[in-house]
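Box 4.2: Ligand-aware structure prediction
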Amino acid sequence: MQPMVFSFETLTEYGGLGLDYSYSAAVAEELGNINCGAIPMAIGVQTDMATPALAKFGSDKLKKEFLAPSISGDKVACLGVSEVGSGSDVASIKTKAARKGDDLIINGGKMWTTNGAQADWMCCLVNTSDGKPHVNKSLVCLPMDSPGITVAKKIEKIGMWSSDTAQIFFEDVRVPRSHIIGEEGQGFTYQMIQFQEERLYAAILVLVPLEKMIADTIAYARDRKIFGKPVLDNQTVHFTLAELQTELELLRSAVYRAVALYVKGQDVTKLASMCKLKAGRLVRETSDKCLQYWGGMGFTQDVLISRMYRDMRLVSIGGGADEVMLSIICKFMDTLPKPGK
Ligand SMILES: Cc1cc2nc3c(=O)[nH]c(=O)nc-3n(C[C@H](O)[C@H](O)[C@H](O)COP(=O)(O)OP(=O)(O)OC[C@H]3O[C@@H](n4cnc5c(N)ncnc54)[C@H](O)[C@@H]3O)c2cc1C
């Protein structure tokens, strides 16, 4: 397998700017200023979730065909990992790509695919053999206009309304074998590496919304008077907001440290998983506690805090649920039960 160290400079020939990952992180943080979770998520699928494996491990031909137009914005990418029966347990996916001459014939389907209803291509995880589940998978660049692909439905969600989430079926979809990213059979490993950027992105993305939720709540609670004084003047209110702000600063430090280490080429799987776990929990806690101080107004569609409450709930589920993050952290801490003991 290729080493973890990856130079973004190599992407200039495909239209990249040759900047390191910290610039990507800065963009992700700035996208948090969009007053919703869905648009930054949809952009992140293109920049940090469906394309990193192709950029790191793909052939020159594949990068020209799929990465270059994704960088220029001419093609929309989506990531097809999750299936109806496999979300947390990625190794258990059922979609199969059978070899036929120089082609692959794909059957199965994907679930929860962000951008899936409008994407031009999918970075799709498939089983390319019947071997052991961690070495029988490949990531494939799948053009979404291939015959046999059906976007079955757009899924109705409690939040993230401005991002489409699709269920997709594959029936005898034919793609050239040369569309496999990197080495055949290494797809699971590549996807685990690709997840690092997805999880970092998710953690970076919540920083500005957290800041905004707290700031907006301070402004509202200062203005809103009950029992003859501002809501904010109750110690339980301003102490709670101070706690949340402190937690935010700790998350920010961990995220920036993870980004700095990643730029140096280090494997940040453990730290990125910790950041994603903490990000998910903190946005839930912050949106819930802040919404409370808005009273009935917090329960309306008219204020940002209610949208944050709905949209940000996904952070603890998408890209690996909190429990999956905990399992990864446990593996690094060597705390999991040993087989046979
Ligand atoms: C809006 C949205 C967008 C998405 N976008 C994409 C996308 O673009 N591409 C893609 O491939 N997927 C996408 N997903 C799928 C997402 O990654 C999965 O939903 C997620 O990984 C959880 O899988 P699952 O839904 O199948 O839940 P399950 O795997 O059924 O898990 C259910 C719950 O079990 C718990 N759990 C999991 N593991 C453990 C454990 N070890 N111990 C105890 N409890 C555990 C967790 O609480 C988890 O939420 C998206 C999902 C949503 C909702």
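In the box above, the bound molecule is flavin-adenine dinucleotide. Residues 235-263 form the longest helix (29 residues).
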